[in-house]
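Quick one: structure for this chain?
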Amino acid sequence: MTDTVYIPGTCDTKHAELAYIRQCLHARGVKGLIVDVSTRGTDADADVSARTVAACHPDGTGAVFRGERGQSIGAMAVALRHYLLARTDMAGVIAIGGSGGTALVAPALQALPLGLPKLVVSTVASGNTAPYVGGSDIAMLYSVTDMEGLNRLSRVILCNAANAMAGMVRTPCHIPPDPRPAIGLTMFGVTTPCVDHIVHDLSGRFDCLVFHATGTGGRAMERLADDGVIRGFIDTTLTEFCDLVAGGIFPCDTDRLGAVIRTQRPYVGSCGGLDMVNFGARATVPERYRDRVFVEHNPQITLMRTSVAECRAMGHMIGHQLNRCEGEVRFLYPEGGFSMLDQPDAPFHDPVADEAFYTALSETLDQTPRRRLIRLPHAINDPAFADALAHEFSLIFMKDTDNAQHSPQ
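Got it. Here's what it folds into:
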């Protein structure tokens, strides 16, 4: 029975806060267990001791209690992941921490199933939370004050967090099964018309899960594919590669397209957003790029047009990844531009850079009957191009034996 909320934190420094959360949960009729993840090796008052957690490390407790703080924290993070994944009564997880404690608990929470309630009250929740949330559905709440005992403000914030967790675990979502197979699509604001058109065309046959291509979006989509939820991809928007190559703020990692390789699910990709690198406010753009073409998307986001060299690098990189895919693969190239900003009279219109991507991709890609590069005389947001993406996906989805057997007609 899943009836327990686990409350991980460092009892040697945060016991009062952890105990208060447990008290608030109990007041709402929810069972809570404090899980100590302290690394000093001292005994603390907890429902689950730090030594119990540390024993779940593949190399045993000695890997955790080794004296060097950084290594100990990293090892305890591994141990906590193994401990939590082995629980069979888990209804949710609520954790607290400063920068170190948040970094310790976050990897374990990221490994938990999507949909399981997970919440972190943290002093770093007001900054860049991407390293802590990743591609998961972790909710983060800024603690406002540092966690140094209870006070009039921390009591309210921690109680709100506990009440939120109690509400989630006491009123779980019961979603009726959907007979349509789920597919993953990637979108940016500058490719929205294309993806909207595809979703409109395919939603009668497919449950279309659209992911914002901000690095974590691509990771979330591929995680769901690895978990067996997503049965195919229309990866319209690969802009995360731009930030990986040029140092932008929304990069993918080197495992982008890894789930396509591992699952061999049908894949249709394209060039959405490959004309832009994402930075923060204009003042944050690295000095080495001062002579490039920019568009200020909003006060917090500055876009930079990708160069010939960057487009060429992305063509080789994507081509090498696609060569490792053994399932059905189609990559559609839009001659008319990669985004709303990459059209005649638009600021990022650069056919030479676009063509550099195509040349590098075509040179790299090992084309076979199952892996094809298709060039079309449309811009990415043209309805005809969206129709082509949807059509190619429908064809290769039905060619996939497993999908053909289970897909609704």
